[in-house]
Amino acid sequence: MSDTYLMAIDAGTGSVRALIFNADGKQIGCVQQEWNHREDPRFPGSMDFDWTTNWTLACSCIRDVLTETGVPASKIAAVSTTCMREGIVLYDSTGKELWACANVDARSSEEVSRLKNIAPELETEIYLESGQTFALGALPRLLWVKNKLPDVYHKIARLGMFNDWLIYRLSGVLVVEPSNGSTTGLFDLQTRTWDRNIARRCGLRDDIFPDVAECGTLVAKVSAKGARESGLAEGTPLVIGGGDCQLGSIGVGVVNVNDAAVFGGSFWQYEYNTGTGKTSSKCDVRVNCHALPSVWQYEALAFNPGLVMRWYRDAFCAEETRLAAEQHSDAYVLMDKEAAKIPAGSHGMVCAFSDVMNYIGWRHAAPTFTNFDLSPERCNKYTFYRAIMENAALVTLGHLRLVEQATGNRPEKIVFAGGASKSVLWPQILTDVLNIPVETPVVKEATGLGAALLAGKGIGLYPDIRETVKKLVKIEKEFTPDSENVDVYQRAYETWQRVYAAQLSLSDRHITRYMWSAPGL
Question: I need a labelling partner for 204 at 20 to 30 A (CA). Which of 81, 157, 225, 430 fits?
């Protein structure tokens, strides 16, 4: 299998990537192109997806990664795709794209209010069946198209997600899979397929849903047109992939019931695997289909830890950025070294950005730092930096407890992946706050690896994904809780909860601005 290669195409929020892996799971190459989602000036909060330009960028990545690695297109044994969740594409009866929006689209506040007015309990009823509320799903966006773009709405023949769109562009075949499809709010979690009754109850059409196949199923082959545009070989097998977090979970070995992961990037996702599609009676945490049959995931999201860290670096750490450039290092590495000298708890400073998830009433207080003193030795920029790290970990503790309340279980360990896991300090803070061992994997492109493994499964290269990840997924480092720090953080969490409640009250009373609130709130 030394000359067997697998390709993953990843349509992320801010970029598209094409990656090549060998049969042993080793990344051979990656080419990435940034893309932007345009706001329609007529509709505040809108984020239109430019399928023409973005398909050109995707094809450029495919061609360039083949060229840079020297891997002939004929040696790509299979391709699979992954993407941001929640982004949707609408097609007409001829198969042409009609309308598409990215996952960050937030134009449908009015429609959420209308949905809530249809029946006060409608959102709760839909959540109990689908695991989704109106905060992120497709329902309000489809209703927006119906109300604001009726000509487009009446032409809709099918609906799909971005990972399916990539395969569709390569082959002309459109099939949706459960891991991403379930994030629309139009799926029945138990049957892992469309629930047309949900659409009807919301006043939406129920005849626009394509076939569903489980992740890792061979669904198509690259067409002659797809080959001309992408540079792939005609006839290359196309295997349906899944949502980015679910495939990232496969890429870090989180494939069994009670396994859990934290993906630390712009957003932080806490993913916990369960053996049922049962939802929370409080409607406070998201439930999605995993990319593995008969496995589901409780998902709790923390907003903006990675973006907050980037803001802090760019706003206050110009000197570290300059030194890092001179030393061919990274500003975060220099900042980590200094922040490690600050004791756990950051001398009592409290930082508040994202709140613990409340899926049916989701809002975040205005960002704040508080309870710091005026001693530059104790409260300097590295104290603030560490407080940001601790805030992300404290929110994750809230999510751990949230999922434990809903399921009655907690994991024995956490796999920590994503950009934040590259830090030498953040994983230790996380293990101290959670009081659970934390592991960081060797692989840094977990989502791409997960897609590649599904590509291999679809052609029979990996008959059993669980056995495959045992062989191919490697752990780079293990972190264990420091008992003294655990005690500090348990107390800090109680303080943080009280501070956050007070800050949220200020935003609820419109004294301060929400960092973010769900549409319709």
Answer: 81
Residues facing 6 on adjacent strands: 21, 78
| Cβ pair 264, 305 in contact under 8 A | yes
Q: Which residues of 422-451 are buried (b: 16+ CB within 10 A; e: fewer)?
A: bbebbbbbbbbbbbbebbbbebbbbbbbbb
CA-closest candidate to residue 225, choices 175, 164, 169, 174: 169
What would the pLDDT profile of 312-330 be if each residue is shown by its tens digit?
999 999 999 999 999 999 9
Distance (Å, whole) CA 486 – CA 497? 17
Is residue 521 scored above 80 in pLDDT?
Answer: no
Compute the distance between CA of residue 110 and CA of residue 520 in angstroms, rounded to an integer: 6
Look at the block and give the residue holding tokens 């508080």.
Answer: 370
Q: What is the pLDDT of residue 2?
A: 62
CA distances from 25 to 7, 458, 471 (A): 11, 15, 9
Contacts of residue 418, defined as CB under 8 A and 6 or more positions apart, other chains included, come to 248, 262, 263, 264, 265, 268, 306, 446
Q: Which residue has the tokens 């060998």?
A: 22
pLDDT at 192: 97
Q: Can you give the pLDDT at residue 79?
A: 98
pLDDT over threshold 90, residue 138: yes
Q: In which residue are the tokens 């067409």 written?
A: 223
Residue 259 lies in a domain: no
Domain with 243 in it: what CATH number? 3.30.420.40
Q: Is the separation of the CB atoms in 457 and 465 below 8 Å?
A: yes
| pLDDT at residue 159 greater than cutoff 60 | yes
Residues 356 and 489 in one domain: yes
Residue 287 lies in a domain: no
Are 199 and 74 in the same domain? yes
- Tell me what pLDDT residue 486 has: 98
For residues 254-266, average pLDDT = 95
Contacts of 267 by beta carbon, 8 Å cutoff, 6+ apart: 301, 302, 303, 304, 305, 306
For residue 16, pLDDT beyond 60: yes
Same domain, 63 and 154: yes
| 321's tokens | 């950025």
**265-295 as b/e: b if 16+ CB within 10 A:** bbbbbbbbbbeebbbbeebbbbbbbbbbeeb
Say if residue 23 is in the same domain as residue 116.
Answer: yes
Q: How many domains does the chain have?
A: 2
Whether 466 and 255 have beta carbons less than 8 Å apart is answered as yes
Percent of the chain with pLDDT over 90: 90
- Whole-number Å distance between alpha carbons of 393 and 353: 12
Mean pLDDT over each residue of the chain, to the nearest integer: 95
Q: Which residues pair with 22 in a beta bridge?
A: 5
Q: Residue 163: what residue type?
A: N
What is the model's pLDDT at position 518?
Answer: 85
